[in-house]
Amino acid sequence: MANENTSIINIVSREANIKRKLRRHLHALGFEKSDQGALQIQGSGKEIVRTLHRAQREERLRANREFIATMAEKLLGHFASGREIDATRISPILERVSAGTWQGDLFRLASLTWSVPVSNGFGRRLRYLVWDENNGKLIGLIAIGDPVFNLAVRDRLIDWDTHDRSARLVNVMDAYVLGAIPPYNALLGGKLVACLLRSRDLYDDFARTYGGSTGIISKEEKKARLLAVTTSSSMGRSSVYNRLKLGGQQYLKSIGYTGGWGHFHIPDRLFAELRDYLRDIDHTYADQHRFGQGPNWRLRTTRAALSALGFKEDMLRHGIQREVFICELAKNATKILRTGKGKPDVGDLLTAKEISELALERWMVPRAERMPEFKDWNSNDIVDLFGNQTRMLRNQLKSSDLFKETASGS
Fold first, then answer.
1. Are 89 and 297 in contact (CB under 8 A)?
2. CB neighbour burial string for 83-122, b if at least 16 within 10 angstroms, e if fewer
3. Residue 176: in which H helix or E strand, if any?
4. How far, in Å, CA of 139 to CA of 129, rounded?
5. Residue 324's closest CA among 130, 157, 96, 118?
6. Quick one: which of 128, 130, 127, 168 has its CA closest to 149?
7. Are 49 and 43 in contact (CB under 8 A)?
8. For the segment 316-335, what is each residue's pLDDT rounded down to a tens digit?
9. What residue ranges do the domains of the chain occupy?
10. Are 52 and 27 spatial neighbours (Cβ–Cβ below 8 Å)?
11. pLDDT per residue over 17-75, tens digit each?
12. Residue 353 has what pLDDT?
């Protein structure tokens, strides 16, 4: 009896401790309670989004400290200085990334420079480095993976019911990493990288790799075809993805906004405590592993823990609405996804090389002429994008050949 009472007291004490930590963390991010008890934050815009993601990003960078320290000097030479770029001679090429390679390490290192932490993806995945063949430097990153099962704006566009979505979601992927690296981002390289989603290269790679896919939800064998790719802007409305047309072809189409629900504002350390708490109360979600449980496993687990602690579900409504886009690789993608009938019309898909030539003429060369300041970027400036690891990196690299070369060339 005494042991049972002690156990109850420990759980109650743990509940109170977790609640205090959650409230303190959310207050530090700038969240307040509305009159209805929901989370709300004052202000809007990109800086608010960065602020809300700051704790998550700092946690991610700390977790990767050893990796960054080990790989930086080996890989930072792949980042360009502005003076190394001749906009009229940029020659983008795609390189497929495999696990366990230096290219995979470079992809990981480059993605850690972004102000909003990127996902690791889920299930089926294709990753690419976008290179400038002219100078051998990195332009940007692409990664597509399995999409979330529930995405209201996508499902309304296609007019899916639950059965149809389960049967045909295998033909859709989500771009969870998509963007350009400095200084190519200053030349609108992000538009080029986004357009490469609708390339013959990705369509064919998907067919070779996942043409005989097994559905994650249904576990059924399916003849998958890459009909569409969704993506969302981390900063609300996207100036990069909107009006994305080349040669009369629309490459991305805005289809609406997310509802502002999610778990990014619950950092890993608190999520770990929430899972431990679920174990203490023998909750079934405590040890469900994310693979095979669907890409929303963390959201469901967090919701279960918050509910058990007595919090309203509104705690997962952070209010940051992301603009959602769809890239239709087949002209009749929506029709096939809706009905399950028809052959993909992909006759107008261009190769990555052909798309790049159009993007250079449309965006990158004119931007270089109008805004030559990109030339001022030094490759060692990339170190400043590693947040709380910047000081460590600068101390580690200050005597390296990389820094000496960029300093002498500036």
1. no
2. bbbebeebebbbeebeeeeebebbbbbbbbbbebbbeebb
3. strand 172-180
4. 8
5. 157
6. 168
7. no
8. 776 677 899 999 999 999 99
9. 9-42+261-316, 47-260+321-409
10. no
11. 888 888 888 777 777 776 665 666 665 666 666 667 677 788 889 999 999 999 999 99
12. 97
- For tokens 């999409």, name the residue: 147
Sign, CA dihedral 335-337-342-343, equals positive
Main-chain phi, psi angles of 281, to 5 degrees: -100, 15
Residue 57's contacts (CB-CB under 8 Å, 6 or more residues apart) are 115, 116, 117, 387
Tokens of 77: 């030479």
pTM above 0.90, yes or no: no
Tell me how far apart the alpha carbons of residues 364 and 289 are, in angstroms, rounded to a whole number: 44
Cα-based torsion angle of the residue sequence 194, 197, 200, 202 in order, rounded to the nearest 10 degrees: 130
Overall residue count recorded for the chain in this entry: 410
What is the rounded distance in angstroms from the CA atom of residue 14 to the CA atom of residue 402? 49
CB neighbours of residue 354 within 10 Å: 14
